[in-house]
Amino acid sequence: MIIISLLMLCVGFFAIYNTSKKIALGQSIVEKWLQQHQLVAKLISLTSFIFSISYYTNVFGFGAGVFFILVAIMSVASLMILLIPIFKKLQKKNNSLS
After folding, report:
1. How far apart are CA 72 and CA 68, in angstroms?
2. Contact at 8 Å (CB) between 34 and 41?
3. Confidence (pTM)
């Protein structure tokens, strides 16, 4: 259940990441849908964040749960901000080769 909650946190951050106007539009159906329906994407991210925060504070206690969620959000956010543009460039390069 801890991993499912961590995946919910990743989904929530991915949804909020795709509502940004500064990033390039994605090619996948999910990214396009999230960018076209920004209110729904923000609600998805909010509910997944609330679910993760409530689960971790319930399992680990308030102090350790808040600390864990802060560390998890920082880790997930930094990985997504770093890796998503790299994967998009690699995908464009592979599409141009074929």
Report:
1. 6
2. yes
3. 0.83
Per-residue pLDDT of 13-67, as tens digits, reads 999 998 888 877 777 898 889 889 999 999 999 999 999 999 999 999 999 999 9
Tokens of 70: 């802060």
Calculate ∠ Cα 55-59-60, nearest 5°.
115
Residue type, 93: K
Q: Which amino acid is at 41?
A: A
Q: Which helix (H) or strand (E) holds 84?
A: helix 62-97
Burial of 39 (0-12, 13-18, 19+ CB in 10 A): exposed
E strand or H helix that includes residue 80: helix 62-97
Query: What distance in Å separates the CA atoms of residue 17 and residue 42, rounded to the nearest whole number?
Result: 10
Rounded to whole angstroms, how far apart are CA atoms 79 and 85?
11
